[in-house]
Write a structure and sequence with these properties.
The chain is an all-alpha fold and 43 residues long. The protein has 2 helices and no strands.
Length: 43
């Protein structure tokens, strides 16, 4: 679920969200934490 959608409709525990993201990234071992965004040609 997109956090931007959740934040507009409910209060979010940001520390819990950060810890959960870090834990999931570590478990999946697909990308490093913290994620990076790269501007594409069509942006």
């Amino acid at each position: 679920m997109d956090l931007q959608v959740i934040v507009t409709h409910a209060e979010v525990d940001r520390l819990l969200a950060k810890k959960t993201c870090e834990r999931l990234f570590a478990y999946r071992q697909l990308q490093p934490w913290s994620p990076t965004t790269k501007k594409g040609i069509d942006w």
